[in-house]
């Protein structure tokens, strides 16, 4: 594995400050392309690309279980064992839930000093297809709970490491794994070099339409694999509020109500049976009114056509389990005109203690603004609120549609060539997201045209996958010893 040059001055991310959010009247300095490029090459001289290969656990690295326990302290206690159970399935599912652990680790690796908006949890399962407002299937990053400005390398390293770990789960050879991981970095680098040459508006309008991608995919992985993808996409296009209405509700006195499936889905009247129905209804209506104020005017008008019909708590994801998440059934012109909204708690990003606090006072707004900045097309119902719970604690939340053609890659059935093709798509997508907010010319100048960075990222990913395997064993031991409680099969 490559190691960085001995230099105590090598920048570490814990001393990197965020780029502050500018006011509308702030003075902006514009650099020439040559000056942007020089900035990137200067960063490369200070932090060589080969140094990005390094991962050796520091002597003061905290117990990963202690970090998970720290996160669990603010979550719904009865749901935390479900999170642990989902993380227990494999080293990859553990990795998905251990974004905080990796954030600490990344804060102790070399960084170039170039800042962009980060996803913060850019593993391969947080990319996928969904419907654009124009009702086209697009591919993009789809999870922004941890988004903050920070060193662009962090997203690249988490994404690349996820490919190494997922490929190990699939039983792929070391050569097959390295090819996929290298393609993540190669696709990112080539895309950033391309974006550096593009006009600003062309970068902003760049997006990946899945229909346009399929012919190229067939050339790479063959007709059979492409047909599997097409079937998955066709199924995803039926996954909308109408499908949610048929799957998640039943009729009660002629009105659709959300089905109870505890502990994964629990209607609000079951959670708070001691509260009067009228009080619950008033609280929900007030929250929806406040949410509407975070929308731009045309979308607020649209939401005002809908009335609240029911609310339930719903367990979602792996890393998010234990945070407060709700689904809201709203009805428009009649009972066959549904809109399902998902309301998720937004806590401080796992990156915050390493790059500084968010410039947004509401973490729901932090998530929404980061998503809009990084995605080429975003959900029209994105919004946020701050609300007090029955415990009197104020918490931040963000809103989005529950189902809107969401499609995820079938990693568990993907062949090695398919994983490489997926690596290319994810690498390009991440570069596009970073190019929208960061200094794309400087990042391209840092990356250069040689494969030095690609190989360094592959080395890092292999070393970090070894670390993840060790952490997973520690995690299993904590469950076996009773230190952590895990509910499996949920």
Structural Rg: 23 Å
Q: What distance lies between the first and last C-alpha atoms, to the nearest angstrom? A: 39 Å
The coarse silhouette is globular
Q: Count the strands? A: 13
> Main β-sheet: number of strands, strand sense, barrel status?
6 strands, antiparallel
What is the strand arrangement across the widest sheet?
Answer: 8-9-10-11-13-12
Total number of domains: 2
Number of helical regions = 19
Low-pLDDT residue spans: 1-15
Query: Which structural class do the helices and strands define?
Result: alpha+beta
The overall pLDDT average reads 91
Portion in helices: 40-55%
What key phrases describe this protein's structure?
disordered N terminus, 14% strand, three-stranded antiparallel beta sheet, 19 helices, 2 domains, 490 residues, 47% helix, alpha+beta, six-stranded antiparallel beta sheet
Describe this structure in words.
With 490 residues, the protein is an alpha+beta fold. It is built from 19 helices and 13 strands. The protein has a six-stranded antiparallel β-sheet with strand order 8-9-10-11-13-12, sandwiched between helices. It has a three-stranded antiparallel β-sheet with strand order 2-3-5. Strands 1-4 form a two-stranded antiparallel ribbon. Helix 6 packs across helix 19. The longest helix has 30 residues, at 452-481.
């Amino acid at each position: 594995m490559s190691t960085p040059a001995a230099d105590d001055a090598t920048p570490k991310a814990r001393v990197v400050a965020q780029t502050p959010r500018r006011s509308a009247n702030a003075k902006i300095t514009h650099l020439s392309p040559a000056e942007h490029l020089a900035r990137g090459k200067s960063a490369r001289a200070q932090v060589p690309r080969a140094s990005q290969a390094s991962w050796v656990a520091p002597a003061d690295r905290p117990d990963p279980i202690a970090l998970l326990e720290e996160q669990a302290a603010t979550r719904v206690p009865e749901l935390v064992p479900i999170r642990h159970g989902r993380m227990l399935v494999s080293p990859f599912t553990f990795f998905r839930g251990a974004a905080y652990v990796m954030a600490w680790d990344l804060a102790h690796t070399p960084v170039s000093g170039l800042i962009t908006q980060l996803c913060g949890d850019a593993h391969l399962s947080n990319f996928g297809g969904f419907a654009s407002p124009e009702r086209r299937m697009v591919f993009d990053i789809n999870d922004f709970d941890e988004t903050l400005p920070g060193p662009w390398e962090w997203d690249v390293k988490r994404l690349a490491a996820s490919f190494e770990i997922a490929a190990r789960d699939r039983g792929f050879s070391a050569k097959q794994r390295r090819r996929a991981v290298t393609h993540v970095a190669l696709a990112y680098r080539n895309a950033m070099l391309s974006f550096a040459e593009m006009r600003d508006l062309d970068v902003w309008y760049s997006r990946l339409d899945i229909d346009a991608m399929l012919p190229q995919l067939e050339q790479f992985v063959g007709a059979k694999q492409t047909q599997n993808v097409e079937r998955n996409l066709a199924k995803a296009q039926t996954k909308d509020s109408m499908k949610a209405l048929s799957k998640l509700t039943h009729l009660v006195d002629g009105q659709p109500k959300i089905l109870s499936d505890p502990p994964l889905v629990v209607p609000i009247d079951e959670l708070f049976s001691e509260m009067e129905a009228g009080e619950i209804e008033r609280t929900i209506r007030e929250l929806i009114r406040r949410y509407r104020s975070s929308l731009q005017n045309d979308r607020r008008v649209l939401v005002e056509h809908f009335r609240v019909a029911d609310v339930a708590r719903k367990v979602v994801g792996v890393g998010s389990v234990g945070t407060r998440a709700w689904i809201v059934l709203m009805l428009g012109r009649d009972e066959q005109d549904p809109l399902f909204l998902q309301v998720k708690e937004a806590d401080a990003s796992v990156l915050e203690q390493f790059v500084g606090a968010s410039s947004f006072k509401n973490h729901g707004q932090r998530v929404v603004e980061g998503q809009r900045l990084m995605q080429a097309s975003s959900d029209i119902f994105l919004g946020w609120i701050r609300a007090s719970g029955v415990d009197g604690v104020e918490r931040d939340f963000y809103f989005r549609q529950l189902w809107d053609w969401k499609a995820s890659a079938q990693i568990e059935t993907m062949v090695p060539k398919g994983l490489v093709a997926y690596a290319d798509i994810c690498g390009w997508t991440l570069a596009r997201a970073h190019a929208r907010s960061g200094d794309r010319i400087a990042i391209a100048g840092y990356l250069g045209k040689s494969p030095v960075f690609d190989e360094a990222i592959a080395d890092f990913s292999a070393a970090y996958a070894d670390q993840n395997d060790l952490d997973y064993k520690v995690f299993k031991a904590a469950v076996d010893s009773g230190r952590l409680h895990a509910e499996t099969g949920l």
